[in-house]
């Protein structure tokens, strides 16, 4: 292929890197990646930050969600990146279901409720494929779940009912972390089943998710990636620029400009929501703007406390937090912080550390606090649920602040009440310029994948998809 055309990829997350790798592999070398931050990877971010086992800590993506037909799993397997030991360890450790009163809820009861909840979730999945006009796009998964659950509870006695309601609350918080929403009431019922689960166990990386980036990056020359270049405005398609050669000028925040014929935009839906009006000149077509507004993009954060010794007990892998819905405060030594009630579990990870997930408004609440406050809040939860005053002092805290990270502004996307998979198609549709029939703005990133949105494999495939679009345009050159 000759020196032209020129492509600029905005963002060096997994989708941008996948696009670059594919272009290189097929002999298209005329591209650059402009990345706002000082590292590649975006929402894949592994750190080595001080824990006794020297395990790598994942601030962003942790799991490969499913194996069959998962390109991320394939890459990890071929390159021997999967953590087999962690898998074995997880299988051996048990989960305990504890209330804030320090009482244990029996596994039998929990399993009975999980089975029911799974059945309801499968029923919700079926609305997506069915031809029926209901539910309409304004109905929520949360309302459906509650309605089905209330019916199930009718024949239960009071004591059983109270425990089962706690399991439901726990499930709702867990679903928020999985789907990336603030509340299950935000999730579209009609499109709940549009997210495709891939079969096979969910697995992790031995040397961290970033080892996957190293593999993808092997085929991308270093000089192609320009770090610390936040793009301010993409001027596209009104007139041909630079003596009629290029359709697009990319203006960076530092004033530097780059010219190109095609742009692959991979910034997160959070960044698009906040900045699409200024990021594109002229503005994006209205169907794309509406899709950006309507689709959901929530915050999911991790809070990790490191200890010198195990706090949950050696055999316990997970403390499942069975909060009561009436928010009574049973802590002995302080108030349970509101944000902590959104954590559905505390899991043993990285040797003696424990990990909690927090989502939505509560995650943003946590992000405002100091590290000392976050540490104290989680310790209060531990003391309350474990009924122990003698817990060791944590040696370190790592917590994420994805909602306030200016390069992402949230964590991952979902189909929100009022939106549909058509909005995902509008979002990923390439946009042609008035001065040229060729698509000049191409869109990749997890939120542009119709069935694997929110995942690394969705992001990876979306980058390859847009690279292929460019390769197809010039296949006869
Ligand atoms: C806490 C958390 C846990 C997760 N867990 C999992 C998991 O277990 N499994 C899974 O499959 N997925 C998980 N995900 C989701 C997964 O990480 C993402 O779907 C995926 O990494 C997104 O890749 P991307 O390339 O689409 O976007 P990003 O990784 O966001 O890449 C976009 C890039 O664009 C850059 N950028 C933004 N604005 C500009 C600008 N103006 N100019 C230049 N560059 C810009 C950003 O800095 C970023 O590097 C998780 C995410 C989070 C936050």
UniProtKB/TrEMBL annotation:
Gene Ontology molecular functions: polyamine oxidase activity
Superkingdom of origin: Eukaryota
Cellular location(s): Cytoplasm
Keyword hit for Transport: no
InterPro entries linked to this entry: Amino_oxidase (IPR002937), FAD/NAD-bd_sf (IPR036188), Flavin_monoamine_oxidase (IPR050281)
Key words of the record: Cytoplasm, FAD, Flavoprotein, Oxidoreductase
Co-factor(s): FAD
GO cellular component, as recorded: cytoplasm
Segments forming domain Amine oxidase: 14-471
Signal peptide residue numbers: none
UniProt cross-references to Pfam families, sorted A to Z: Amino_oxidase
Family: Belongs to the flavin monoamine oxidase family.
Name by which UniProt lists this protein: Amine oxidase domain-containing protein
Native organism: Pinctada imbricata (Atlantic pearl-oyster)
């Amino acid at each position: 292929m000759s020196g032209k055309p020129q492509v600029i990829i905005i963002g060096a997350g997994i989708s941008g890197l996948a696009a670059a790798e594919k272009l290189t592999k097929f002999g298209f070398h005329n591209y650059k990646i402009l990345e706002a931050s000082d590292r590649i990877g975006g929402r894949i971010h592994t750190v080595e930050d001080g824990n006794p086992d020297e395990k790598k800590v994942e601030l962003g993506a942790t799991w490969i969600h499913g194996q069959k037909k998962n390109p991320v799993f394939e890459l990890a397997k071929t390159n021997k990146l999967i953590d087999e030991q962690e898998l074995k360890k997880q299988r051996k450790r048990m989960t305990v279901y504890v209330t804030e009163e320090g009482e244990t809820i029996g596994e039998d009861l929990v399993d009975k409720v999980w089975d029911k909840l799974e059945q309801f979730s499968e029923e919700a999945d079926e609305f997506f494929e069915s031809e029926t006009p209901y539910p309409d796009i304004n109905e929520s998964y949360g309302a459906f779940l509650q309605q089905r659950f209330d019916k199930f509870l009718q024949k239960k006695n009071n004591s059983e009912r109270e425990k089962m309601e706690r399991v439901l609350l726990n499930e709702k918080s867990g679903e928020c972390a999985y789907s990336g929403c603030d509340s299950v009431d935000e999730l579209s019922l009609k499109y709940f089943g549009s997210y495709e689960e891939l079969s096979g166990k969910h697995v992790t990386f031995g040397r961290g998710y970033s080892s996957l980036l190293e593999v993808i990056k092997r085929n991308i020359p270093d000089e192609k990636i320009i770090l610390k270049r936040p793009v301010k405005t993409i001027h596209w398609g009104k007139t041909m620029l630079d003596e009629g050669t290029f359709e697009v000028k990319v203006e960076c925040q530092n004033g530097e400009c780059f010219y190109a014929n095609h742009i692959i935009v991979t910034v997160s839906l959070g960044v698009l929501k906040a900045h699409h009006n200024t990021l594109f000149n002229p503005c994006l077509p209205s169907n794309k703007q509406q899709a950006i507004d309507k689709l959901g993009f929530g915050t999911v954060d991790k809070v990790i406390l490191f200890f010198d010794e195990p706090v949950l007990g050696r055999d316990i892998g997970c403390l499942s937090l069975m909060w009561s819905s009436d928010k009574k405060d049973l802590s002995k030594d302080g108030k349970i912080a509101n944000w902590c009630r959104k954590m559905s579990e505390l899991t043993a990870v990285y040797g003696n550390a424990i990990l909690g997930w927090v989502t939505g408004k509560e995650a943003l609440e946590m992000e405002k606090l100091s590290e000392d406050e976050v540490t104290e809040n989680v310790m209060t939860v531990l003391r309350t649920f474990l009924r122990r005053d003698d817990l060791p002092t944590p040696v370190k805290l790592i917590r994420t602040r994805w909602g306030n990270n200016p390069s992402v502004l949230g964590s991952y996307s979902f189909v929100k009440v009022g939106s549909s998979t058509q909005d995902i198609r509008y979002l990923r549709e390439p946009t042609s310029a008035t001065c040229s029939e060729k698509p000049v703005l191409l869109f990749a990133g997890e939120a542009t994948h119709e069935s694997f949105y929110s995942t690394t494999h969705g992001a990876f495939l979306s980058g390859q998809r847009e690279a292929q679009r460019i390769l197809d345009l010039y296949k006869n050159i």
